[in-house]
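User: Could you check the structure of this?
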Amino acid sequence: MSQASRKVTMIVGSLRKDSLNRKLMKLLQEEIPSHWSVEEVAIGELPFYNQDIEIDGDPEVVTHMKQVIQGADGVILITPEYNSGTPAVLKNALDWASRPTKTSVLIDKPFAVAGASPGGGGTAQSQAQVRQTLLTMNAVVMPGPKMLVSRAHEKVNEQTEQMDDERTRKHTKRFLDSFEAWMSKF
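Assistant: Sure, the predicted structure tokens are below.
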């Protein structure tokens, strides 16, 4: 029995081209099930949320992000941790996506949260804040397994510049399998 195709959106909360979290996204993309299609939503060009801008209509980049999220079966957020918290650019994207509040594209949308950090906590504090924000916005956040990649810089292959640590790769597969089951519930 073949599985239904899935559209999954990935959003990286780091703007740096060579960030550890972008490397984690690439690892996730390498391990996705064959019946998934993945689209990344870039958030670097989003203006800061401002209701004065919103009153005149969403900017094109905001409209695009909302359309991609709306059309997805699920969303994976890959977040770094800046000063023990969520990066402003990611919080800003969630603020835009949450509008208008009663018909937000986030309502009842399955989410999973992952993150990589050179520190020992593996973005635990940032992920907790992202989860709280998503729950406030009525998204449905996968409770586990958590994808907290600590000491991520040590898991990057010096030759390929990609994250290819075998233990992390195995955990990635469990994380994606769990997200498949999570999306199936909704």
